[in-house]
Design brief:
single chain, mainly alpha
Length: 158
Amino acid sequence: MEQYLGLMLVILAGAISVGLAGAGSAIGCGIVGQSAAGVTAEDPNKFGLLLVLQALPGTQGFYGFVGMFLILGKLAGVEITSITFSQGLSVTFAAIPVGLVGFISAIYQGKVCAGGVNLVARRPEEVAKAMVYGAVVETYAIIGLISTILLLQNIKLG
């Protein structure tokens, strides 16, 4: 069992990456969806504009999936019993930026986009402004993904 501890930490890292970012995306998309459903009930023609705003918080889940893919890619060609505890722990810490920042930013992006839904409800021609507000929050999710990528590049397994 002890010889697999490093591997278990690498698998935990992948789960942190995709699990946290995906959970945040689900929450964020749900927040926007609740607002968008109310507006769409009043004006079904705004569905397309609002769908774009609802999709924005979903990107963090994709970033978490990319992080997991890169983490599991570190296992390619590595004898799994040769992964040390410290190497596994290093990979686990490297997963935190994409997972945690993805979780938090997706929720806040959902809140910002829900505000954008209210803007579009009153002034549909302003949808681009609502998207820009949401994209500002997205910046930090991208920084989290890039941080995880850079950290992983400096970890050698086996």
